Amino acid sequence: MGKIKVGDIVTRKSHNHDIMFKIVRLDPKGQAELKGLHLRLKADAPLHDLIAAGKTESLATARERMLRARKHVSMRKSMHMWRPAGQP
Fold first, then answer.
1. What is the pTM of this model?
2. Which domains does the chain have, with CATH numbers?
């Protein structure tokens, strides 16, 4: 398996590959600074938790799966299964 480097597109094993990230920075301690590709999100993760997105599925397939998951969450909220904090 090739080494993960800055600029690679990755997903996180611990989060069931739900979001695709681009690696922005690597530090010597084995941590990666990540930037979300389809969400405005910054995160960090240990290198052993990352896998190159192309290794699990194509980028188009991963993006489609992520959009379906977002739509599912949106539907749950609109069906009143979700309530803001402080409401019974």
1. 0.62
2. 9-78 (2.30.30)
